[in-house]
Amino acid sequence: MGKIIFYNELDISQEIATLETKPINLRNGKSVQESSYGSIETHRINVTEGLTIYSYKVQVNSPCFYRTEISEMRNVHIVLSDNNNDGKIFTPNDILIDNSGFVLFYNQHSLLEYKLPEDVELKWVEIVIDDPLQLRRSLQKSSYLDGFFYSKNPMEMCTSIDERLHDEYNQIKELIADAENQQILLKSKGFALLNEVLLSLERQKSDMGKYSQYDIQKIFTVKALLLEDLANPPSLEYLAENSGMSISKLNRLFKVVFGKPPYSFYSDYRMEEAYRLLRMGRNTVSEVGYKLGYSNLSKFSAAFKKHHDLLPRNIKGMTSD
After folding, report:
1. DSSP 155
2. Beta strand residue intervals within the chain, DSSP E
3. Yes or no: is domain 264-314 CATH 3.40.50.1370?
C-alpha cells in the first residue's frame, strides 16, 4: 500500500524510520507497528474480489510523509479523511481541502506523498479497486472510475466530502473500530461507501462532462502556475495564454475542478500555507507575512483571521516577533 516515512525536521531527505502500511497479521486483517517516532494501526477489510478497504490510524511524534508506491497492477485508490484542522493531512500537490475533509482519487501510475503534521492522531480510510469489471454490477456507473482505470497517465482528483458521503464514512469508521465482529456489515457498507463516493463525485462535478480530458489536465497546469510564487500571483491573462483557453472558460473550468475561481483558490491556499509555516515554528508572523507577499503586517493578520478565525500570533508553536 505505502509507507510512513519519518524524516529529520531540518533535512527532509534524511529518513529516520520507515513503517510499512500493509497489514502483517493476515488472520484478522489488523496490524500495529511502532517506533520511537510514531506508530500506525492498520485494518484491512476484503469486501469482495477486486475491492479492499484499508483503515489507518497514525500517531506521529515527528513530521513525516505517507508515501504511496507505483503498482504494477491496474488499480484505483480512493482516500477519505476528515481530521480536524491541526491534524489536517496536506494532500498530494498541495490540493486544497476544507475542514470537513477530502476525497482523493488516483490511479496506479501515480506516486503520491501526503504530509502529516506532528503530535496529532490522524485517521483515514483507503478504498483500493483492483478490477472494475468484477464490481460493475454492484456499483453506480461512473465515468470517473473508468477514466482512472484506463488512463495510461498518472491521474489525481481531489474534492471535499459532502454531507451524505460524510454519513457513510462515519458509519464505516465505527464498524472498523470493531472490525473482527462486524465483517458482514463491513462488506455491505464497503459497497455503500464506494457507491456514495461515486455519486458524490457526480453531484459535485456534474459540469465536468462538458469539458475534454485535455482541458481538465490543462487546469492542473494552471493551478501549478497560479501557486508557483505565492508572493506574486500571475495575471488571468497570463494563465489563459498558457492554458490555451479564454479567461471566461478558464474561470468556469477552474471552479468546476477546484470548487472556486482561481484567485479565491490562490487566496485560500496562501492562508493555508501561512498556517503551515506558523505551525512549524521556524518563522515569526512578520517573516511569514513578508514571505507571502504582505508588506503590511496588519493586513496579513486581518486576512489570516478572516480565513482561520484566529490571529497568527495564537498559532501553537509560533515563533514570537
Report:
1. -
2. 2-8, 11-20, 30-35, 38-48, 51-60, 64-68, 76-81, 102-107, 113-116, 120-129, 156-160
3. no
Contact between 119 and 60 under an 8 Å Cβ cutoff? The reply is yes
Sorting pLDDT into bands at 50, 70 and 90, what band is 96? very low
**Of 23-27, 38-42, 59-63, 180-184, minimum mean pLDDT range:** 23-27
What is the dihedral sign for C-alpha 106, 107, 109, 111? positive
* 2-204 fold: Jelly Rolls (2.60.120)
Contact between 14 and 5 (Cβ < 8 Å): no
Q: Which residue has the cell 476484503?
A: 46
Instruction: Please tell me the distance from the alpha carbon of residue 209 to that of residue 193, in angstroms, as a whole number.
Output: 23
> Is the pTM above the cut of 0.85?
no
| Fold equal for 2-204 and 264-314 | no
Contact yes or no for 74/149 (Cβ under 8 A)? yes
SS3 126: strand
- Domain spans of the chain? 2-204, 213-259, 264-314
Give CB contacts under 8 A, 24+ apart, made by 134-142: 134/48, 134/49, 134/50, 134/51, 135/48, 135/50, 135/51, 135/194, 138/48, 138/191, 139/191, 139/194, 139/195, 139/198, 140/195, 140/198, 140/199, 140/202, 142/198, 142/201, 142/202
Closest CA to 9 of 312, 285, 281: 281
Nearest to 212 by CA among 147, 140, 154, 146: 147
